[in-house]
Design a protein that fits this description.
Keywords: Membrane, Transmembrane, Transmembrane helix. The protein is mainly α. It has three helices and no strands. It is elongated and about 65 Å long.
């Protein structure tokens, strides 16, 4: 028997997680593009560079957290 309420919770959590990862990655790519354009004009912003690497890092951590939660062998459940 399918527990539809649990299925709905997993589906919504998956959708929200995917939207968060895609948004973070898109923001980092956009920030990098702006940084490259500014560097080509000769006025590179070091803070913007640090920002897009930080957002890429957060995106990677969210993906690793998702893998950790999915694989039971990693957390002993």
């Amino acid at each position: 028997m399918i527990e539809w309420s649990s299925f709905l919770i997993v589906a919504v959590a998956t959708w929200v997680s995917a939207v968060v990862v895609i948004t973070l990655f898109s923001a980092a790519v956009r920030m990098r593009a702006v940084h490259v354009d500014q560097a080509a004009e000769g006025n590179a912003n070091a803070l913007l560079r640090l920002g897009y690497w930080a957002v890429f890092g957060v995106c990677g951590l969210v993906v690793l957290l998702g893998v950790y939660l999915i694989v039971p062998a990693l957390h002993g459940a």
